[in-house]
Amino acid sequence: MTDHYVDLDELDDYKLEHRNQDLRGHHLYSHDGTRLGTVSRMLVDPEREHVAALVLDDGRGVPVSEIEIRDGDAYIDPVEESRYFTPRKREREMPRGPVRVRRHRT
Question: SS3 letters for the chain?
Fold first, then answer.
């Protein structure tokens, strides 16, 4: 089901129709007010050309069909816990270690 979802960050030719639809860093709630977590990634179904799932800060993937945005936060219809999934890891993730910097001289 989720194998064909692609991280929005990895799609150079896809952009959100409106900048205020970027939910990364915002809270996700179910319509009953239950806070599900904070959105860290948005997964796109390229065939249907829409965001099909959100990845929360705890690593859970939450499938979504419709998203309501209110005051910068996202609201979705309740999703049964059994429908949550573990998304594939980002290929750009780096192993733990120091992050090096290079000084540019002008």
Answer: CCCCCEEHHHCCCCCCCCHHHCCCCCEEEECCCCEEEEEEEEEEECCCCEEEEEEECCCCEEECCCCEEECCEEEECCCCHHHCECCCCCCCCCCCCCCCCCCCCC
pLDDT at position 25 over 90: yes
Residue range 70-94, pLDDT digits in tens: 888 999 887 777 777 777 765 555 5
CA distances from 99 to 87, 96, 102 (A): 25, 9, 10
